[in-house]
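Worked example

This section walks through a single chain of length 175. The input is the sequence exactly as stored; nothing has been trimmed or padded.
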Amino acid sequence: MNFQRAKWVAVTGLVLAALLAAIAVRPGSRLPSGKEGEVVVDFALPVVTAAGLQTQRLDGPQHHRTKPLLLHFWAPSCAPCREELPLWQDLAQHADTFAVLTVAGDESDDVVAYLKEHHLTLPTLWDENGTAHKALSVWTIPHTFVLTPKGLIVRDLMGAQTRESLQEALTAAAK
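Given that input, the structure is written out below as tokens.
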């Protein structure tokens, strides 16, 4: 009897955990990690493109202090990341009133191959040692921060996003 009860509790717990995980990663979800309201920590990372890892290093968010910034963390090994990258490519190509900067965390060869295979040209930095991930407490991906031109984090968006959720966040950053 006790074994059956323990088994039932374990199965119920797993089902509940799966449901909560599905809710947490739905497109457009907002589960703050405690960074909203903080000024982003700056970091310098190498630029990576479809042509390969560049010797140039970019001063991350500091480089984009003229307009709101969508700072997006992703990896080729992440299925939700791969699904939403066409949206990020489109945003980067049509960004007039905001900037897009992505940070990839997989091996640089994997990032290069993915960018090349999918003809992606969006601005991407490679976080070799997890410096930016640690500085912003990015423990799951995809993960997006929306920053004001002064570097203030106004939205901390976990999981895949929609164009609508990003537009709403950009509106908040422009205020």
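What to look for: Residues 2-24 form the longest helix (23 residues).
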